[in-house]
């Protein structure tokens, strides 16, 4: 495979995956159980993504500056601190820990 | 609904504010993608093509990560891992489909910007109008920003160094947490979130990147199918009667 083959093939597959969901008629999701699963699915995917982004390092688990930063963020959200402030605070905590260690 | 008023509702303003916060943090990551992509052996055009057409960060990083370690011989593996990481977008587009509504071109455009961030901002909003605004604002903002910063990164990336030094990786996780937060009021969504995060973390050392997140979605299927932990509905088994 040439580099262009790889780039184009992978891009088309990823785009097709995004299109696929829109081709399914919305009526298929009117059933309450299916609608509930679709709704919970985004919760599960986001939560899993947060876990992997916080702890994952390739194919391994690594506890580093990200974990305290995300825990600080959770605490600030619980205190109803605005979203933007929390995101900046999380970045600052991680950057500070990395600068000091 | 009334015709679109020129003034935005507070809900829509909140959606746009979330879009800006998420968009800026994510777009900054494009620099690191552009820089790493050129280091992995792709040229500037190939790098920009990925951000323009593939446009799903996880898959893009996976593709160049495999290419960087295995070269072009690892091409099939690179394509596979990009596809695996992109599979969750199917679930996102299913979820967004009713929010976007009918219209071929609108849905085609929506498909291209259906990514973690746009879906997360959208589903965090309370009203349907704010969900729509949140999706489009986040998606368009990130599409423009991500492509611009990809180009910048491909051209001058080495000068900036590793963006994780600025804590942007933690900021991304914190942003997703903030978008999930409003939905964690019910016991059912709390259980799904904790269960899925646990499953994904536990499986990370054993599965190829992308798969742990997908397998974690099974938690949603199980809890949703049996409607576990739902306090508002104490008699399971009657959902089918609509």
TrEMBL record, chain A:
Transmembrane regions listed in the UniProt entry: 37-57, 69-97
Protein name: Branched-chain amino acid transport protein (AzlD)
A matching Pfam family: AzlD
Keywords: Membrane, Transmembrane, Transmembrane helix
Highest taxon in the source lineage: Bacteria
TrEMBL record, chain B:
Keywords carried by this UniProt record: Cell membrane, Membrane, Transmembrane, Transmembrane helix, Transport
Pfam families assigned to the protein according to its UniProt record, in alphabetical order: AzlC
Keyword Translocase: no
Compartments where located: Cell membrane
Record's keyword annotation contains rRNA processing: no
GO biological process entries: L-valine transmembrane transport
Residues passing through the membrane, by range: 20-42, 62-86, 133-157, 163-182, 189-207, 213-229
A GO CC annotation given for this chain: plasma membrane
Record membrane topology: Multi-pass membrane protein
InterPro entries for the chain: Brnchd-chn_aa_trnsp_permease
Main location as per UniProt: membrane
Coiled coil: none
PANTHER family cross-referenced by the UniProt entry: INNER MEMBRANE PROTEIN YGAZ
Family: Belongs to the AzlC family.
Record-given protein name: Predicted branched-chain amino acid permease (Azaleucine resistance)
Source species of the chain: Herbiconiux ginsengi
